[in-house]
C-alpha cells in the first residue's frame, strides 16, 4: 500500500511538472509574437522568432538525452527549469529588441528541451510494457492542461485589447518558472538499467536502424511544427481579421482542451481503433480543420475548427513516444526520446522559417494553408508506420 501511494505521489509530481513546463512555454511563445508585433516586426521575421525556439536545442538534444540516461531525470529537470527562468528574465530585460526576443526564444527552447527529456525518459523507464499508450496519454494530457492554461494569462492581461500587456505576462511567467525549479528538486529518479559502457555512435546508429523510425520522426515533427505554426500565426491572423487578444487566447485554450481530450482517452482509443488507424485519421482531420481556419467565418465556427484541430494534433506525439519507448531497450530511452526531439526541433527550425517566406507574400492565412497541406501529407504517410503490435 505504501509503495502504491509513493508511486501515485511521484507520478502526480511528474504530471504537475509537465503541466507547469507547458504553461510557461505556451504563454511565452504567443506573447513573444505579440511583443514582436508591438515592435512592428515584419510577418516574415515571425518565422525566424519561431525558429529561435528550436535552434540551440537542436544541437543539445542528443547530449541531453545521454545526460538523462547517465545522471538521471531529476538533474536534467532542474537544469531545464533554470533555463526557463532565465528565458523569462531575458524577455523582461531584453525583450524590447529583436535580438533580445531571439535570445529569449533560444533560452526558452533549451529549457523546454531539458524538462521534456527528463519527463519523457521518466515515463518511458517507469511504465510497464503494454501500458505505454496510457502512460504517455496521461503525461501528454497533463502537458495539454498546461498548454490550455498558458494562454489564459494572455486573456487575463489585456484580453480586450488587440495586444495584451506583454511585460506583465513575462513577469508572471518568471514566477511560474521559479516554482518549476522547486518542483524539479523533488522529482525522484526512475529505476534504470545499469549503465553499460557502450560506444555512443553505436547506440545512436542502433536506434536509427529501428524499423519505421524515419516515418515516425517525420510524422512527429510535422505534427509538432503544425502546432508551433498555429501558436505563432494565429495571433497574426487575429490581428489581420480584427480579433481581440482575448478571443485568440480563448481559441488557443480550446485547442489545448481538445488535445487534452484526445490524450486522456488515448489508451482506450488505441485499443479500439489500433495505433495506425488512430494516427492516420487524427492527423488528416487536423489537416482538414487547419485548411479552412483562415477563411472568414463566425467566431463560434472558428472555435469548432480549433476543437477538431486540437483533438487531431493531440494524438501524434504520445503515440510516437509510446511506440519508441516500447521499441528501445532500457538505458537508451533518454537518447531515444532525444532523437525524436531532434526530428521535432529540425521541423521547428525549418518549417516556421519556410512559413515566414510564404507569409511575406501571402500573410498568416497563406502560412496556415501551406501547413495544412503538409499535415495532410504526413497523415497519408503515417499509413506505413509499424506502430501496431
Automatic annotation (TrEMBL):
Which UniProt keyword terms apply here? Membrane, Transmembrane, Transmembrane helix
Gene Ontology molecular function, alphabetical: transmembrane transporter activity
**Which locations, inside or outside the cell, does it occupy?**
Cell membrane
> Which one Pfam family would you cite for this protein?
MFS_1
- Sequence ranges assigned to domain Major facilitator superfamily (MFS) profile in this UniProt record: 1-389
**Which regions span the lipid bilayer?**
41-64, 76-95, 101-124, 136-157, 169-189, 210-234, 246-266, 278-295, 349-378
Instruction: Kindly provide the name given to this protein in its UniProt entry.
Output: MFS transporter
Q: Which organism is it from?
A: Nonomuraea cypriaca
Signal peptide from the UniProt entry: none
- Claim: Transmembrane helix is one of the keywords in the record: yes
**GO cellular component terms given for this protein:** plasma membrane
Membrane topology label? Multi-pass membrane protein
